[in-house]
Amino acid sequence: PSRSLSYFGIGMMALLLLTAWLGVMSQKQRRPWLQIALGLAGGLAITAKYPAVFAVLPMLAAVVATSRIPLRASTFIGLGTIAGCLLGQPYLLTKFSAMLRQIQPYIVAQTAVQFKLSVVELLRLAFLNVARFLIGPVALGAAVAGIWKLARRHSSSDWLVLLGLAGTIVSLIPLRWPLLRYLIPLLPFLAI
């Protein structure tokens, strides 16, 4: 079971990186096929691991927001996203109710009160776990410096990456418990 979890985590990370790269390319070139490919990669990332939706949607929105014709961009990106979700999870069409029954316990599941952490404590522990176990303190310092630089440059492609990072951090909050495997999606954004 742990092998399959890491496989989907790695697949999702690769698809998140592809989504970010295609997002930057779409902001620069504004071609319909790039926007469809962006949506396709985003949809596949979401179906690889559902929490990826928190990173994918802000990145897609960043491309739409910087588009000259937002309605056209959102249409192409939306079509690509739907196609990506259907390719990654074809049972959405044929066995939607069965899929919903399978994931519903996780949607409504609650963590026991004694294990719940405040959002501030959760984010503090996540930060410490990234430093201790995921990338190490030196690489984390470089990542924080890089994030600071991205935020100060005000480039649309920088904001796409920052929104993906912020979405990934937001995806940790509903868990209310710091698990290392849920920090893995931070890697591509911290590496950039």
Task: Choose one word for the global shape.
Answer: flat
Binned strand content: under 5%
Give the number of helices.
10
Distance between the termini: 30 Å
In total, the number of strands is: 0
Structural class: mainly alpha
The helix content is over 70%
Instruction: Supply Rg.
Output: 17 Å
| Poorly predicted regions | none
**Major beta-sheet overview:** none
N to C succession of SSEs: HHHHHHHHHH
What do the pLDDT scores average to?
84
Report on this model:
There is one protein chain. It contains ten helices and no strands. It is mostly helical and 192 residues long. The protein starts with a helix and ends with a helix. The mean pLDDT is 84.
List the helices and strands and how they pair.
Elements lengths: L1 H28 L2 H17 L4 H13 L4 H19 L2 H4 L1 H13 L10 H16 L2 H17 L2 H17 L13 H6 L1
Helix pairs in contact: 1-2, 1-3, 1-9, 2-3, 2-4, 3-4, 3-9, 8-9
Provide a brief overview of the structure.
With about 190 residues, this protein is mainly alpha-helical. The chain has helices at about 1-30, 30-50, 55-65, 70-90, 90-95, 95-110, 120-135, 135-155, 155-170, 185-190.
List the main descriptive attributes of the protein structure presented here.
single chain; 192 residues; mainly alpha; 10 helices; 78% helix; 0% strand
